[in-house]
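INTERNAL AUDIT FORM
Audit reference: QA-55
Scope: verify that the stored structure record matches its stored sequence.
Auditor: D.O.
Record contents follow.
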Amino acid sequence: MAAQREKSAAVAVGPAHGAAVSGSPSPSSSSGGPAAASSSGERWSAAIGNLGELGANVDALQKMLGRKAVFVDDDIFSKASLAADQARTIKVLDQRVQSLERELDAAISAAARARTDKRQAEAAQRAAELRTQEVTKELENTATAHGGVAAEARGDCEER
């Protein structure tokens, strides 16, 4: 009965000074540059090395918990569990907020690029319309001049 009431709370215990925290990068997880990551065999051996280090860290944590575990009653354990769950939820939500902020920044940048492209397209359209008007006027002037020259030529032909 006493064993059921005693639960170890991992929240109250920190990592041993010799054990690495599982979230921290291990020395074998860093790729020694582009040449080290070039073959899949090297990646597999690095992954296996990482798993070995992770196992050693778990063993060290188990030993530490066995020696330094804090025993609490159900009420304190449930409060600690609730706090840990809330901390994880807050972390997940914070990551989601950061992701949404990045998406928003990307959307704002895309909208700014679209506005710039639109302004450039409108300017090009105005320039094309002005050029069309110039060509039309030139064509009208040429037709008028040609019509005048043609009339003179007909008049000269009729006189002869």
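Auditor finding: record pair retrieved intact. Confidence is low (pLDDT under 50) at residues 1-33.
Action required: none
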